[in-house]
Amino acid sequence: MNKPILSLAAVALLAASCQHVAHDTPEKLIQVDQCGYRPAAEKMALLTAPGKSFAVVDEQSNVVYEGKVADAQYWPEAGDSVRQIVFTDVRTPGKYKIVVDGSLESYPFTIADDAYADALRAAVRALYYNRASMAIDEAHGGKWARPAGHPDTCVLIHKSAASEARPEGSVISSPGGWYDAGDYNKYIVNSSISTYTLMLAARLYPEVAQALSVGIPESGNGIPDLVNETLYNLRWMLTMQDPNDGGVYHKLTTLSFEGFIMPADCHGTRYVVAKGTAAALDLAATAAFAARSLPKVSEKLVPLADSCRNVALRAYAWAEKNPNVEFKNPEDVSTGEYGDSKLDDEWLWAATEMYLTFGDDKYADEAQKHKGDYGVPAWGEVGMLAYFSMLAEDCCLPSFDAAAAVSAVADSLLAVESQSPVSLSLAFYDWGSNSSVVNEAMTKLVLASSCADKAAALKASAANDLHYIFGRNAVGYSFVTGVGSRPPMNIHHRPSSADGIVEPVPGFLAGGPNTVVPDDCGISTRSQYPAAAYGDQECSYSTNEIAINWNAPLVFALMGLAK
Ligand code: 9MR
C-alpha cells in the first residue's frame, strides 16, 4: 500500500542514480502531467516500463512519498502496457519528480493551487497572437511580435456569394478576427463555437475571468481580458453578414492555402464565399448569446449587444427562408470546408439561443422539432451547446430537460473513464482528438456547475482530461506549445514556421493523435495505434496543427478547474 513519508532525509544514492537515467527519454517511460496537479486533486502518473516501487522526490532530492507501482494493464488504443503510479497523498505545494526503482526519473511537475494559471494565460494569449489585420507589438507579443497582415478591408465577393446588391467582384470590408488555425483564413462555423465557448466560460466563471490578466492591448479597459480577446473575433463575425438580406458568408479566404510565410507577406486576393444555413444559424446563436451576456459584463458593451441582437434576428430570419443551403467548396476554392449536411443540431442551438434572448415562442417551437440526443460538442456538432445554455440560464425550454441531456453524455464519459487503464474518457481519436478531450472536460464542467452532488466526480474526471493534455498520454508530450518539459516544437502554424524563432508561438493546443491522414508527411512513420499516432512535425497538419476551436475548450477547462 502507498504511504506518505514525512520529512525523510535526502537519499543521495537515489538522487545520483536519477541523474544517470534522466536523459534516456524518460517521457516515454513515466508519463506525468508536466504542468501540474492541484493539492487536493487525485494524482496519478503512468509507467510504460516494468517497475516495482516509486518515490516522489522534491527539489532538494528529499523523498516525500513512496509507493508501489500498480500491475500492468493493456491500453489497446496505444498498443502498450501501462502501470499506474498513484501519489494523491502528496499535497504539499512544491516542485517534484517521480523516481521508479531508484533508476528512472520523470519530468518535473508542480503541486500548486494555481498549477494551471500560466497555461491558462498562455492559451488565451495564443488567440491574441492569431489576430488578423493588426500588428502584434513588442509590448504585448514579446519576441513573437510581428507586423500586421491581412487587413481584409478590400475583400471581394466570390461568384458563389454574388447577389443583386453585391455582385461578383464587388468589394466589402471584413477586418479583424482570428486566423482559424495554422492557415490564415477565417470561417464562421468554426468561429461560432470558439467564440461561444469562451463567452460561456466568462459567464460561468466570472471570478476567474476577472482575475485573469492576459497582457493584450485592451488590458485595463474595465472589461475582463478574456472577453476583450473574444470580442476581437466577435466583431469580425458581425461583418460577415450581408446587410442587404441578413445572409452570412461561410468564410473569408484566399482561393487556396497560402504558403508558410508571415501574415505581412501575404498578398493573395481574399474573398467571402457562399452564404449557407450553417453559417447563418451559428452566427445567429453566437450573436444571440452575446446579446444577452455582454450587458452583464459591462454597460460599455450594451451598444455591441444591440448590434448582436439585430444580427441574430436577421441571420435567423435568413435561415428560415433558406433552411437547407449546405456549404460546399466551390470548384476554384480549396481551403478548409467546414461542410455539414446535418443541420438539426445547428437549428436546435440557434432556436434555443434565440428563445433565451428574445423569448418568442416560435423559437421554442422550432427547438422542439430538433430535440434529440447530441454528443460532446465539436464544430459540426453543436446541439449540446443548446443544453449548455439552458443550464447556464438555469431555465429550460418547455419539455426540455437539459440536465438529463448533459448528464446522459457525462455519465457515458465517466463510464468509459472508469474502464480505461489510463483514466481517460476519450474513446475515439478523430482529427483534433485533443479538442475532443477538452470538449469532454467542458461537458463535465458545465454539468458540474449546475449539479452539486455530481460536481466532485465530474471535476476529477475533467482534471484527468487536462492531465492527458499536459503529458499523461501515449506519446509523452505536453500538447500545448511552451508549456511543460516536452511541448510540441514544430506545429503546423504558418507564423511559427516563418518567424525565424526556434520556439513556436506559445499557448497553442496541437490537434493530437489520430489515424485519419497517416501520410500527411509522406510515407507514414507514425504509429498505427490511434492514441500513439502523433508526430511533432510541421508537415503533419492532421496531428500537429492548432486551431481556435481547440484552444477555446482548453481555456474553458483550465478556467473550470482553476478553483
Ligand atoms: O478541425 C477540422 C476537422 O474536424 C476536419 O476533419 C478537417 C478536414 O476537413 O478540417 C479541420 O479543420 C481545418 C480547417 O478545415 C481549415 N483550417 C485548419 C483546420 C484544422 O486543421
How is the topology of this model organized?
Elements lengths: L2 E2 L7 H11 L7 E2 L4 E2 L6 E4 L5 E6 L4 E6 L4 E3 L4 E7 L7 E7 L3 E2 L3 E3 L5 H13 L8 H4 L13 E3 L13 E2 L13 E2 H17 L1 H6 L13 H14 L10 E5 L17 E5 L1 H21 L4 H20 L22 H15 L2 H9 L13 H10 L9 H18 L13 H16 L6 H15 L24 H5 L42 H4 L3 H13 L3
Parallel strand pairs: 3-11, 12-16
Antiparallel strand pairs: 1-6, 2-4, 4-8, 5-6, 5-9, 7-8, 9-10, 9-11, 12-13, 14-15, 15-16
Helix pairs in contact: 2-17, 4-6, 4-7, 4-17, 7-8, 7-9, 8-9, 9-10, 9-11, 11-12, 12-13, 13-14, 13-17, 14-17
Bound molecules: ligand 9MR.
Question: What would you note in describing this structure?
Answer:
This protein is α+β, with helices and mostly antiparallel strands and 563 residues long. The chain has two domains: 26-111, Immunoglobulins (Immunoglobulin-like, Sandwich); 117-475 and 546-560, Glycosyltransferase (Alpha/alpha barrel). Helices cover 37% and strands 11% of the residues. It has 17 helices and 16 strands. Strands 1, 3, 5, 6, 9, 10 and 11 form a seven-stranded mixed β-sheet that branches. A five-stranded mixed β-sheet has the order 13-12-16-15-14. Helix 4 runs parallel beside helix 17 (548-560), helix 12 packs across helix 13 (433-448) and helix 13 runs parallel beside helix 17 (548-560). It is globular. The model is unreliable at 1-24 (pLDDT under 50).
